[in-house]
Amino acid sequence: MTETDARTTTNAWRNWAGNVTARPAGAVTPASVTELAGALRRASEDGLRVKPVGTGHSFTSVAATDGVLIRPDLLAGIREIDREAMTVTVGAGTPLKRLNAALAREGLSLTNMGDIMEQTVAGATSTGTHGTGRDSASISAQIRALELVTADGRVLTCSEQENADIFAVARIGLGALGVITAITFAMEPIFLLTAREEPMAFDRVAAEFDELVAENEHFEFYWFPHTGNCNTKRNNRSAGPAAPPGKVSGWIEDELLSNGIFQVACSLGRAVPATIPSIAKLSSRALSARMYTDIPYKVFTSPRRVRFVEMEYAVPREAAVEALREVRAMVDRSPLRVSFPVEVRTAPADDIALSTASGRESAYIAVHMYRGTPYQAYFTAVERIMTAHAGRPHWGKINTRDAGYLAEVYPRFGEFTAVRDRLDPDRLFGNDYLRRVLGE
C-alpha cells in the first residue's frame, strides 16, 4: 500500500487482553469519509484486505488482519443532537465513555449500556455489546441509522427508511459489510437509577431467578466458582434524589476490592492454583450490600482494570438456570480452579439478524479466566454445555463455533450472508475469523 499521508503507519496490533496479535501491512487513520474511501480503494488495488479496529476489547480475532488496519480515532465526536427526534449522531471512533459524558452534560442518556465503556461505538455495536435488561436491549438495538462505506467506496446511509435491508443486518455487522463511519442512536432525557447490590446464596438466586428478572428493570448476578455464593445487582429507575456512593466507600468497593485486591488474588491463584477455592470463598464474602442512586452510566458501568479472557453464550432465557447448574456441577467435579466469577445477565428479544438475542428472550452466561492462566479446558467444557442449549456465542468473545453451527441457531443467518455477498463479494473485509464464523 502506498503511503499517502502522515496518518499511515505499520505498527503491530494487540488486543486489550493480549491474547490476539496481528502485524498489518499498514494502519491508516482517516480524518474523513473521503479519506477512508480512498484508503479502501488503494487497498483493493494493492490486493490487501481491510479491517476496522476499535479499542481491542474483543477477545476474538474479529479485527485482526495482515492487510490494512483502519483506525477510527479521527472519525469521532458528536455530529448532531436532534432533540425533536431524540437521537444523537456520533462518529464511529468515539469511545462510549466520551459519548456517555457528553450526553450527560446535555441532560441526555442512552437507555441501556454494558458494564464497560472503553470501546468505540462502532466496535461495541458491531460485535453485539450488551448490558442486562428486562425490557431494554443491547446498544445495537438502540441504533436508528448508520453510515457505511462499502468495498467499492460508496457511502450508504442505512435506516428503517433507507437501505432497510442493509440496516436490518448491519447493526451487528462484525466489520464484514464495510466500515461504519457514524451511528445515530436513540436517546432519552437523563434519569436516575438506584442500584441495589446484595450477596445472595446460589440456590436462592437459582430458585428466584425468574422473579428477580421480572421485578427489576435490570438484574444481573455473579456466581463465585468453588462456593455457593453470589453477588446480585438490581438497577431500577428512581425519582431521586441522587445519592452516589461516598468517595471513600466507593473507592474501597470499586477500586480497592474489585480491582486492587482482586488483582493480587488472581496473581496468587495463577501462581498457586490450589489456593483459588479458599480465595474464592474470601472474595465472595468481601463485597457487602449497598445501595446508591446516580445517573445511568455511573450505575451501569464499572472500571475493569484486571485483565482477563472471556467466553460468553446467550441461551434461551428459560434454559439459564439449568445451564448454570450444569456449569457449577462441571466445575465441582473437575480439577479446574477458576478464580473469576461467572456473570449472568438477560436481554429481551430483538430484530437484528446476528444479535445473540435475535428473535428470542435470552440469558447470558459469561466465564472468565485471568490473563495468562490456561483457559482452554474450562472454556471447552462450558461451551459444550452452552451449545447443548442452542447457545449463541458473543461475537467478540472466545468461541470455537463455525458457520455450520451458527446457521442452525440463527434463523436469519442466510439473510446476513446474502447482504455480505452483495456488498463485499471479493471479501475485502474478510479475515480468518470471519471465514470460520460466516463461511466462504
Word description of this protein:
The protein is α+β, with helices and mostly antiparallel strands. It contains 13 helices and 21 strands. The strands form 5 sheets. The protein has an 8-stranded antiparallel β-sheet with strand order 17-14-16-15-19-20-18-21, sandwiched between helices. Strand 15 and strand 16 form a beta hairpin. Helix 6 packs antiparallel against helix 7 and helix 9 packs antiparallel against helix 10. It is globular and about 60 Å long.
Structural class: alpha+beta
Largest sheet: 8 strands, antiparallel
Strand order of the largest sheet: 17-14-16-15-19-20-18-21
Label the overall shape.
globular
- The end-to-end span amounts to 25 Å
Approximately how much helix is present in the residues? 25-40%
Total number of helices: 13
